[in-house]
Amino acid sequence: MSPLRLLTLNCHEAWVHQLESLQVCLDIIDGLPGRYTSRWDSRIRPVPRGARLLSLEEVLREGVSYQCVIAHSMTDLLDVKSLTAPRLLVLHNTLESRLQGGQGVDPQQVQGVLRHYLRQVGGHAVAVSALKARSWGVTTAVVSCGVEPSAYPPWSGELACGLRVANQISQKQQILAWSFHQAAFRELPVRLVGHNPEMAGVEPSESWEHLKGLLQSHRFFIHTADPVLEDGYNMAMLEAMAAGLPVLGNCHPTSPIRSGVNGFLSDDPDELAMWGRRLLEDRTLAGRLGEAARRTVREAFPLSRFAQRMKKAIQTARRSCRMG
Predict the structure, then answer these.
(1) Are 66 and 85 in contact (CB under 8 A)?
(2) CATH code reported for the domain at 149-300
(3) Which parts of 49-123 fold into alpha helices (H)?
(4) In CATH, which of 3.20.20.450, 3.40.50.300, 3.40.50.2000, 3.30.230.10 is domain 5-146+303-323?
């Protein structure tokens, strides 16, 4: 039996790279406007093995028959509206974060429009977390991202320095609870990594291997997020846990961090700074908490579970299309 042929659109290289675990034929539409980088950013991830990067025009011209199109936004759905194939919409953000700055926009109206469109095209939606599923109100299906700890070298933590990986910080300050981050870590050594051209000295990693090296050498990882707008974890944080780093952040109902077990959480920036200093001074403690973080992500976010749930979601999308 030949593998499925899937089409997706480039929205988030680290997430799209996970599709490699499905062992399918994968085409990726690249070069669309509205992304923070115009083309696939190989500094974040290499192109999945066997995948092709194509323009939307090339996809339309080739006329390949796809078993499923994986979209990541309502804009994506409109971009591929002329293709005849089942649709699977992956919701990566909360509706509240999407509507930030949209004065007078009714969230229920947006939900209704999306629900109506999915019914029209026979599409199926999944969310990357339960928070995002509840936020949009169009699906209860959750396909959490997955990581493979064996892909990361053993943690060393020789650098007494914290690490945070985040893109577009200036546009996401409320989502990332950035003022809290600054209050907690203003006096501690912290390296920021990501696409933030407006921030002096902050650059993306040179490659995935370079990022793995940064995770290997730093003492702890930071993740802060507004509990209404974003989850208490993201892919960067789960990768850090897989690499053996303890995590520091604000209290969050969806965080996989348990204070004193695999990191520390606090809504008091001074207390969080105290724990940061403690980890900078005590590499042994950081190593013990980081090993617990590694176990947590291995049990709660295995890549095999992502692949299993994603395949099920694709099957549901194909059935929905036949019934539509």
Answers:
(1) yes
(2) 3.40.50.2000
(3) 56-62, 74-79, 95-98, 107-121
(4) 3.40.50.2000
Using DSSP, state whether 149 is helix, strand or coil. helix
**How much is the average pLDDT of 207-218?**
97
Q: How far apart are CA 65 and CA 85, in angstroms?
A: 7
Helix (H, G, I), strand (E, B) or coil at 52: strand
Q: Where are the alpha helices (DSSP H) in 84-218?
A: 95-98, 107-121, 130-136, 178-185, 208-217
| Domain locations along the chain | 5-146+303-323, 149-300
Query: By C-alpha distance, which of 260, 261, 273 is closest to 224?
Result: 273
**Model confidence, pTM:** 0.94
Specify the amino acid at residue 234. Answer: N
Phi, psi (deg, nearest 5) at residue 152: -115, 140
What pLDDT score does 1 carry? 57
Task: Return the residue matching tokens 């599409």.
Answer: 123
The token duo for 100 is 């930030």
| 213-220: average pLDDT | 98
Whether 149-300 and 5-146+303-323 are alike in CATH topology: the answer is yes
Dig out the tokens for 92 from the structure. 């990566």
Mean pLDDT of the chain: 94
Distance CA 198, CA 185 (A): 20
Looking up tokens 């994968």 gives: 26
pLDDT of residue 102: 61
pLDDT on residue 127: 98
Q: What is the pLDDT at residue 32?
A: 85
**C-alpha to C-alpha distance for 306 and 16, rounded to whole angstroms:** 12
